[in-house]
Automatic annotation (TrEMBL):
Residues 192-226 form a coiled coil. The keyword Metal-binding applies. SUPFAM superfamilies: EF-hand, Spectrin repeat. The keyword Ion transport does not apply. It holds the Pfam family EF-hand_7. The gene is actn4. GO terms for molecular function: actin binding; calcium ion binding. It comes from the Eukaryota. Keywords: Actin-binding, Calcium, Coiled coil, Metal-binding, Repeat. It comes from Pundamilia nyererei. InterPro entries: EF-hand-dom_pair (IPR011992), EF-hand_Ca_insen (IPR014837), EF_Hand_1_Ca_BS (IPR018247), EF_hand_dom (IPR002048), Spectrin/alpha-actinin (IPR018159), Spectrin_repeat (IPR002017). This is Alpha-actinin-4 isoform X2. Residues 508-543, 549-584 form the EF-hand domain.
Length: 654
């Protein structure tokens, strides 16, 4: 137990020493770590504060540059500062605050006193310095932007200033020499007036350029206010322009006075020139117009027109004495000019500045016009004689035309009346119409005589005739219509005779047909319109009322009497229709039955049978046109009389 107790006490003392040593090491390690963090904090804070101290003066530097490009370089440097240099410092500041907080926590946990950085290196000091840095940074950025805008404005103004100066200097180039010349001393009044008007235009131009000079001065002032780096040269150029402008104003006023004084000296002579020009120009125009009128080719068509020209010519001749007085007055003005010039020793220019009309040209034109007057008298008298002759031709043609026109009109009415009336038999009517036709044809010499008169009128180039409303073309058409109408009427009577003989119609039936036709021919046109024909059919008992069946029946009948669709029914068509409706007529069936008798009830017929039963020419006609028979009972040489018969009546192709 003693040994054990000794061992226990020996080992227990050793463990306490080791524990004490470990505690001391641990305390020393914590202390060393804290001291290292303190040193790191002090160094990091010193470096950050030093960087802020160096950066703030750079950001507060407001040295102005001359150009936008130079300021853009500064802007680029500032962009590098913001994007490259500042972000690491932001990290350092953040790390500094983290280190400080961590150090304070460790000191507090290790029961150590709080860390107090050296003076000026507190976190609050660093935040304050950082705040000052950001303030300088913001001001620097705003200054760069405002400075770029200022320099852009300055560059724009400088370019504008030099452009306006160049334009103004280009305009003023040579103006002083122009204003100091004395070209007006040898000019005429018109030239002086022209120079004066030109000078007035120059004054207007000068006044217009006043605005540009004021703009140049205003731009120069603004460049000075904006502290333009090259303001000295701008001011010198602006001053030169202003001084030159004052000189131009003085020279302009002096030249105007000289021009006005010279103008008054020449006005006395110029007034006479002007009066001469004012009176000579209208008189010259009057003479030229008179000469044109005296030489003018005239085209007239009747006596009234030529008499009007003669009257106008007589009125013109009555104005000649007054015109001669005006000519003498104009010549006296020129004589007065010569007199004044000679008495005052004035050297006149080559001619009147206001007109190119000379006294010699006026006299020459006057003599030419006077020589043309009798020639015009003769021409007008010859034309009057020609128009009198033309008027006689008009009257002769009109007398014959009125007679022929009345004759044609009367005969047309008579033919129309004859075609409607029913006097005597058709043969009597035909005889009377042919006699009537001969009497009309016998009138042909009168038409030929009228043609001769018309030829004379055409040769005389006469285009109107106030003595008659008839024209040759109208009378020709009327004459041809008259001959055509009488020929058509004769043909209608001949067709009526053929119809009567072929259909066995009596004279009384024809009278009845004519009476019915005339009764419904309300307008006496010689043809029945559709409605007139329908009324006629209704009176004859046909069922053509305004219902579906009646319309169909009427359309069928109209297709018979008016196959061309003209909408009118002639008397011949009316007779054909009525005779067809009231008389027997051959049909295809009747002809087939007749051929069947000749063929001994066979369905075909032979050439020998035809030659035996029919006249030779008719037999050969049938043989040539009949088709071969092809039925089951056919024999060699058999002919088809059935198809031939139907073809005769249009029921099949022949």
């Amino acid at each position: 137990m003693t040994y054990v107790s000794c061992f226990y006490h020996a080992f227990s003392g050793a463990q306490k020493a080791e524990t004490a040593a470990n505690r001391i090491c641990k305390v020393l390690a914590v202390n060393q770590e804290n001291e290292q963090m303190m040193e790191d904090y002090e160094k990091l804070a010193s470096d950050l504060l030093e960087w802020i101290r160096r950066t703030i003066p750079w950001l507060e530097n407001r040295t102005q540059e001359k150009t936008v490009n130079d300021m853009q370089v500064k802007q680029e440097d500032f962009r590098d500062y913001r994007c490259v240099h500042k972000p690491p410092k932001v990290q350092e500041k953040c790390q500094l605050e983290i280190s400080f907080n961590t150090l304070q926590t460790k000191l507090r946990l290790s029961n150590r006193p709080a860390f107090m950085p050296s003076e000026g290196r507190m976190v609050s000091d660093i935040n304050k310095a950082w705040h000052n840095l950001e303030g300088a940074e913001k001001g620097y950025e705003e200054w760069i932007l405002s400075e770029i805008r200022r320099l852009e404005r300055l560059e724009h103004l400088a370019v504008k200033f030099h452009q306006k100066c160049a334009i103004h200097e280009s305009w003023t180039d040579g103006k002083e020499a122009m204003l100091t010349q004395k070209d007006y001393e040898t000019c005429t009044l018109s030239e002086v007036k022209a120079l004066l008007r030109k000078h007035e235009a120059f004054e207007s131009d000068l006044a217009a350029h006043q605005d540009r000079v004021e703009q140049i001065a205003a731009i120069a002032q603004e460049l000075n206010e904006l502290d333009y780096y090259d303001a000295a040269s701008v001011n010198a150029r602006c001053q030169k322009i202003c001084d030159q402008w004052d000189v131009l104003g003085a020279l302009t006023h002096k030249r105007k006075e000289s021009l006005e004084r010279t103008e008054k000296q020449l006005e006395s002579i110029d007034e006479l020139y002007l009066e001469y020009a004012k009176r000579a120009a209208p008189f010259n125009n009057w003479m030229e117009g008179a000469m044109e009128d005296l030489q003018d080719m005239f085209i007239v068509h009747n006596i009234e027109e030529i008499q009007g020209l003669i009257t106008a010519h007589e009125q013109f001749k009555s104005t000649l004495p007054e015109a001669n007085k005006e000519r003498e007055a104009i010549q006296s003005i020129q004589s007065e000019v010569q007199k004044i010039a000679q008495s005052n020793g004035i050297k006149l220019s080559s001619g009147n500045p206001y007109t190119s009309i000379t006294p010699e040209s006026i006299n020459s034109k006057w003599e030419q016009a006077m020589a043309m007057v009798p020639l015009r008298d003769n021409a007008l008298q010859e034309e009057l004689n020609k128009q009198n002759s033309n008027d006689t031709l008009r009257a002769t043609f009109a007398t014959q035309a009125n007679t022929v026109g009345a004759y044609i009109q009367a005969k047309m009415e008579e033919v129309g009346r004859i075609s409607i009336e029913m006097n005597g038999t058709l043969e009597d009517q035909l005889t009377n119409l042919k006699e009537y036709q001969k009497s009309i044809i016998s009138y042909t010499p009168e038409i030929n005589k009228l043609e001769g008169y018309h030829q004379h009128i055409q040769e005389a180039l006469i285009f109107d005739n106030q003595y008659t409303s008839y024209t040759m073309e109208h009378l020709r058409v009327g004459w041809e219509q008259l001959l055509t109408t009488i020929a058509r009427t004769i043909n209608e009577v001949e067709n009526q005779i053929l119809t009567r003989d072929a259909k066995g119609i009596s004279q009384e039936q024809l009278y009845e047909y004519r009476a019915s036709f005339n009764h419904f021919d309300k307008d006496h046109s010689g043809a029945l319109q559709a409605e007139e024909f329908k009324a006629c059919l209704i009176s004859l008992g046909y069922d053509v009322e305004k219902d579906k069946q009646g319309e169909a029946e009427f359309n069928r009948i109209m297709g018979i009497v008016d196959p061309n669709g003209s909408g009118a029914v002639t008397f011949q068509a009316f007779i054909d229709f009525m005779s067809t409706e009231t008389t027997d007529r051959d049909t295809a069936d009747q002809v087939i039955a007749s051929f069947k008798i000749l063929a001994a009830d066979k369905n075909y017929i032979t050439a020998d049978e035809l030659r035996r039963e029919l006249p030779p020419d008719q037999a050969e006609y049938c043989i040539a046109r009949m088709a071969p028979y092809t039925g089951p009972d056919a024999v060699p040489g058999a002919l088809d009389y059935m198809s031939f018969s139907t073809a005769l009546y249009g029921e099949s192709d022949l």
